[in-house]
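Hi R.,

Here's the chain you asked about this morning:
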Amino acid sequence: MISDRILIDAINGALYREYRVLDGRPIYRIVWAPDELELRKGKYSEFYGHIFIRERVEVKWIKKYWYLKGPCWVLEKLVFMPNHKALDEMKQELIQSGNGTYQPVYTFINDEAEMLPVAWEIVEFILWRLHNPVGVNPFLAKAAMEAEEREEVKYFEEKLGEGERSPLFVWENSAFVSTNQLKFRKESTYIEKSSPITLS
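And here is the predicted structure, written out as tokens:
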């Protein structure tokens, strides 16, 4: 299942028209992962077949998405470093990152590393979420935490009550009385109601 190249070109055209920097580069773009290369400085090992030859530091072109298991489309964003120190550190490894570098935003693969088709609606939704981040509602977070704590207490009460004696055998001086047994005893206690008191 591969997305049509005409569709990808149309999406990239729309991204170019709507989102670009002053020098004309698009802020967002969709690329075919196997075709992407980057000039990277690093420590590389050389082999002759299975025999290790040497290890050396050099600058060379390598596949940008070498870690992906299969071919797929990737939505990228042009990223700039916030300060000179961060830029200098990045330029030591990524040689051509001085004027910004494209970083992955979304990879069109599923959990089984199978390629997903590209659709304009998905790209549009991702960009909308990037431009309109939604914070966590503190009230909802607190309610979720309290509900989780209640479930945890209930779980442990059930686990503790698995091996306990029947609620019929609850005695005053018992050393092992669970909360369920105490609850049963309280509910099972007979209380005789007295008649109303009259004053003569």
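One quick note: Residues 5-131 form one domain.

Cheers,
M.
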